[in-house]
């Protein structure tokens, strides 16, 4: 195993246990130093569902017994914007637009010390992510937690297409296994078969943990009610931030033993000037991004920020050096409006059939999901 250099987020410390770099992220160092395996130094004493992994530091324990890093790096719109991305479809961003390559950006993320990379077929950049991993001077494959997702087109086409995409992702990321693989959206009438194929990929040794993404409670119920499903999803990746707080959904997932990953945790930077967020940030001497990241962890979710700037990558990960108190959380929780939840439901109804032949009025689309 090639060890990370001293400038990484986590480096091996006394007794082979991790401690953070003294230069970049003192918060991670504080969370790691003196913590034995099986304990966690985040938000006080160890609590059920948290662990301290010797590779990744503070982690969640999934329902299959494996550890999942609490903090990761998102790769959506990193080096490439998919043609059917919501912002591209709305004309806010140019479809296919490219700036710095995903290989360079992810390379910077690895150099900073991120070890969990959240990828997807839809993101259109997995080959570039694989290039960054292969040329990294910082981590070997076993030091990384690699996750990906199968997109709606393959989900619609069926199990053979899902199987083919899993193999394509393995090849693109230059690995023989994935730590986590998800069904990206619950395509009506198709998503359960896609999940059954993921179960087979676990048996084949291609994937360690499997889960879902953008599933409402009702979608999980449909999945678990199928007689062929014998692996409960380990993860559900959903949009989650103080402006789209979904306590009923979080409680449902917790009751099922499903860990939530939060995407758009920083709301694409659109909330960094919000007065409530700024007031909480000033109280703790932190930035708006750090407050929103700490909020995610306080809700028990995996936090996956993204940035193309190295300094922001470091800033975004500094979320365990302080604690939000009850007043902070209540103020942030109250930022979610009924309009935001209605907009989420409308987007869900469109996205479950996006890039498939199914119409937006397909009778299989669930119209009364649990939004909150």
TrEMBL record:
User: Which InterPro entries does the protein's record reference?
Assistant: AKR, Aldo/ket_reductase_CS, NAD(P)_OxRdtase_dom_sf, NADP_OxRdtase_dom
Identify the taxonomic lineage of the organism of origin: Eukaryota, Sar, Stramenopiles, Ochrophyta, Pelagophyceae
Presence of the UniProt keyword Lyase in the record: no
What is the name listed in the Swiss-Prot or TrEMBL entry for this protein?
Aldo-keto reductase
- Which keywords does this chain's UniProt record carry? NADP, Oxidoreductase
The residues covered by the NADP-dependent oxidoreductase domain are: 91-335
The record's family statement is:
Belongs to the aldo/keto reductase family.
């Amino acid at each position: 195993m090639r060890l990370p250099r001293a400038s990484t987020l986590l480096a091996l410390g006394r007794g082979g246990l991790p401690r953070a770099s003294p230069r970049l992220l003192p918060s991670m160092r504080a969370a790691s130093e003196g913590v034995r395996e099986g304990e966690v130094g985040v938000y006080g004493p160890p609590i059920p569902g948290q662990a301290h992994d010797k590779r990744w530091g503070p982690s969640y324990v999934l329902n299959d017994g494996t550890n999942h890093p609490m903090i990761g790096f998102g790769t959506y719109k990193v080096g490439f914007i998919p043609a059917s991305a919501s912002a591209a479809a709305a004309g806010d961003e140019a479809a296919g637009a490219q700036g710095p390559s995903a290989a360079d950006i992810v390379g910077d993320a690895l150099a900073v010390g991120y070890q969990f990379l959240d990828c997807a077929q839809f993101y259109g950049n997995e080959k570039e992510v694989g290039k960054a991993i292969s040329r990294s001077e910082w981590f070997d494959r076993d030091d990384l937690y690699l996750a990906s997702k199968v997109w709606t087109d393959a989900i619609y086409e069926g199990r053979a297409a899902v199987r083919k995409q899993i193999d394509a992702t393995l090849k693109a990321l230059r690995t023989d296994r994935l730590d986590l693989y998800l069904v990206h959206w619950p395509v009506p009438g198709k998503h359960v078969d896609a999940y059954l194929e993921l179960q087979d990929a676990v048996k084949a040794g291609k994937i360690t943990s499997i889960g879902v993404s953008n599933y409402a409670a009702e979608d999980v119920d449909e999945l678990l009610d199928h007689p062929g499903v014998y692996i409960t999803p380990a993860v559900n990746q959903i949009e989650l931030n103080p402006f789209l707080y979904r306590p009923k959904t979080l409680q449902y997932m917790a009751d099922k033993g499903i860990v939530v990953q939060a995407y758009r945790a920083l709301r694409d930077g659109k909330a960094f000037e919000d007065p409530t967020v700024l007031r909480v940030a000033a109280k703790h001497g932190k930035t708006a991004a750090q407050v929103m990241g700490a909020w995610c962890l306080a809700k028990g979710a995996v936090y996956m920020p993204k940035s193309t700037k190295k300094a922001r990558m470091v800033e975004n990960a500094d979320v365990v050096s302080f604690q939000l108190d009850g007043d902070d959380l209540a103020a942030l929780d109250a930022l979610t409006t009924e309009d935001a939840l209605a907009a989420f439901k409308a987007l869900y109804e469109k996205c479950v059939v996006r890039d498939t032949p199914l119409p937006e009025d397909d009778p299989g689309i669930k119209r009364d999901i649990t939004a909150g």
